[in-house]
Amino acid sequence: MRVVAMGGGTGLSTLLRGLKTFVADSAAPPGPSPSIRRLTAIVTVTDEGGSSGRLRREFGMLPPGDIRNCLVALAEDEQLLTRLFRYRFSDGRGLAGHSFGNLFLAALTHLLDALRRPPESADSRRPAAAGRVEDHANPGSHPAPRDDSPRRAPAAGGAFGH
Description:
By secondary structure, this protein is α/β, with parallel strands linked by helices. 35% of the residues lie in helices and 12% in strands. It is built from six helices and five strands; from the N terminus they run βαβαααααβββ. Strands 1-2-3 form a three-stranded parallel beta sheet, covered by helices on one side. Strand 1, helix 1 and strand 2 (38-43) form a beta-alpha-beta unit. It is globular and about 55 Å long. It starts with a strand and ends with a strand.
């Protein structure tokens, strides 16, 4: 069975954490109980705060926080990757407040433009995981905008707010 999960925030990573327990080993023959042969996450990326927001503004990249959380949720060694990717720098000019995972994804974006292309380009270079994570801006697979515009909604009086 193939499963696609769509969303963002903490809900999607929580769902993926549960679903990964049903992902079959790709080398194993199909068993009697239903299992997931391919788990894909389509991650909405609209975060504007904290480290993700800073990277979004400074580098014009899609905010990596929710993608980072989904990669962690799908990791085989989730405890180690959680500690590593959620590590926040407490000091350092420019580094204070950034998580290592966000900086890792920023570097990956610069090296491979991985958050704007199909993620298969980065699959062989990322830590072992039980599924794939795709961002909403992959125009080859998903009809969604590629722009990095802030998400706004009309507020009272006709003004637009975040």
